[in-house]
Amino acid sequence: MFEKKGDFFTNKDENFLNESDLVIFYNETPKHVLKDYVVLGGRDEFSKVDIPKTSKQLPLLLGRLAYVFDIYDEELKEDMGFEDFVEIALKSLRVKKEIQNHDTTLEEVAGVLYLIDSAKKISLFLGDAEEEEIENLMSFLAMLKNKEIGVFSKNDISEFEITFYER
């Protein structure tokens, strides 16, 4: 699914990036962005929203709240893989604890989800992350099947795909 194109491993191309409504920087430093963007894993004075810390739990926190706020593809309600993901990974997550662990607030996380929900095309720049964190992030992105999502990483992510991973 992800292959090397220019400087990045990606599932899209640079044109997709230019057409995106929202850019998310996940453990990556924003560079010359003229669009709305979000920073996950840092702070930036020009971002719409930022969450200072990331971990393998942050994508699950986003997923849990997206599930609660009904910000996911309706077709997934009939998907057994999604149902397993919700029961095993999302429902066991302690929301308040994870919000505190990431030095953020419910409002900030809801702001990220609002921007995602409002966008049709989303580009995500993925910086350094452990395998489990990437799997959790791909599982969260799989919840957004109704969006066009481009993932860009300087790291080799060719072994991953946007699908539900089970832990």
What is the strand and helix layout of this fold?
Elements: E1 3-5, E2 8-10, H1 14-19, E3 22-26, E4 36-40, E5 49-51, H2 58-68, H3 80-90, H4 95-101, H5 106-118, E6 121-126, H6 131-142, E7 148-153
Parallel strand pairs: 3-4, 3-6, 4-5, 6-7
Antiparallel strand pairs: 1-2, 2-7
Helix pairs in contact: 2-5, 2-6
Give a description of the structure:
The chain is of the alpha/beta class. The protein has 6 helices and 7 strands. The chain has helices at residues 14-19, 58-68, 80-90, 95-101, 106-118, 131-142; strands at residues 3-5, 8-10, 22-26, 36-40, 49-51, 121-126, 148-153. It has a 7-stranded mixed beta sheet. The longest helix has 13 residues, at 106-118. It is globular.
- Identify the strand order in the major beta sheet: 1-2-7-6-3-4-5
Spell the H/E element sequence: EEHEEEHHHHEHE
Number of helices: 6
Low-confidence stretches: none
The dominant shape is globular
Structural class: alpha/beta
Question: Quick one: biggest sheet?
Answer: 7 strands, mixed
Q: From the alpha carbons, calculate the radius of gyration and give it in angstroms.
A: 15 Å
Q: What is the terminal separation in angstroms?
A: 21 Å
Helix content: 25-40%
Query: What would the average pLDDT be, to the nearest integer?
Result: 94
Instruction: Tell me the fraction of residues in β-strands, as a range.
Output: 15-25%
Number of strands: 7
